[in-house]
Please model this.
Amino acid sequence: MKEHTRRLLLKARRAIDSAGRLVADGDLDFAASRSYYAMFYAATGLLNEELVITRKHSGVHSMFAELYIRTGKMNPKYHKWLLQAFAARLESDYDVEIAFAVERVELMIGRSREFVDAVEQILGSVRDKMPRVE
Model:
């Protein structure tokens, strides 16, 4: 696994952890955003392994679908979840009137965790690649 990919997956895990803390603090809109970014970082990591670099969210979404969904390497539900989470992220970041239900955000976090787990299964667990501290 490339070092940049490893760092993206670690960042994805941190985003999931952060989303959980934000829910506990009642910051549901920010938690929704972090949940999306966990998936985005993981998808970007997959593309990095394929030497596909794109700077736009739409590019990550389309290339993820092209290389991992249409080829059958991953379940199509992951692309659907990524796009749904992106829509929620746009709401959470730009709509000042949005009020997320805690159940919706907890579902997003669970899906983000499953998404990152699936990416790690394809690439090998980040935890298995982390240096051991003794």
